[in-house]
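Subject: (2Fe-2S)-binding protein structure
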Amino acid sequence: MPIVTLHKNGSTYRDEVKPSTNLVVRAGIKQFPYPNLAYQCGMGKCATCACKVLAGAEHLPPPNWKEKKQLGERLEQGYRLLCQLWLEHDIELLQEPAAAAA
């Protein structure tokens, strides 16, 4: 089962999730990474859930059109929209306040 490590505001949160997990859906039903993950619409329209992928990016699918539209240049810096990802492998993420508000 995938292990998710989330770094935010100087703290680290880590937990195991079931395969094919979407972290925004989990946060919405008050499961890890709730309440630590910033998110809003869950549909790729606001980019509030944007995180920098520190490890595990090689296991993710290519960015979809919503990620390309919302993240632009930040895709090249390793950012992804968590609402658009269904995790199958371990991943390490960084969510920065500036990235979440963009």
